[in-house]
Amino acid sequence: MPGFSSKGGQTMIHTHPLKAALVCVALLTLPQAAAAQTAGAQAAGAQAAGAQVLVDATEVQSIAAIAREYGTAEVDKDTVGDPMLSGEMEGLSYLVFFYGCTEGADCQSIQFYTYWTNPGDVEIDTINAWNRDKRFAKAYLDDDGDPVLEMNVNLFAGVTRTNLSDTFEWWLVLMDLFEEYIGLKPADPAPAGTTPQAPATRDAGVASSVGGLASRQLKSIADWVTGQ
Q: What is the CATH number of domain 55-226?
């Protein structure tokens, strides 16, 4: 508490030196604290302004729009009612399947798919070497012995549009590399007005046990890829 004394008929107020010092410090630091708070708010605002909108597998049209930056792409549905894209990049035909969907919507992941007709000289050792040496996109020989290339992409909770666009570019590069690797030309694209055939079956048990990623019988798409 301040002390009081009388001098010359006037009342004097005495302040403790330590308390006076503390008051001065507080008065000096207030502007600094306010400035720091303002700078923090400005930084948060700038960060929010620079944030990109995320794209996930529920946004079929947005994904199709990105695909069209690299070629043609049409939205369709597979035989179980889930979305599907049929596209072409630099003469290479491909499909994008959607997985983990609920009644044809709210999907969680996508799968890029294409295949080449095997003239008979692409062997399993070549496919195994690709899978051993390459980080992205898996290959296999289907039931007819034709080489297939697939790439699965998890879009749960979303990725930036830049990220997904880069994924499409990677897919184009991988198709080119695989075509050169096996020494084959791609199957002919579908004729104009042809509706692509979708996978005929899906193992619902596998879908439920691995969060919607299911095995598909993919050979039913051959009519579209070969143009027959």
A: 3.30.1460.10
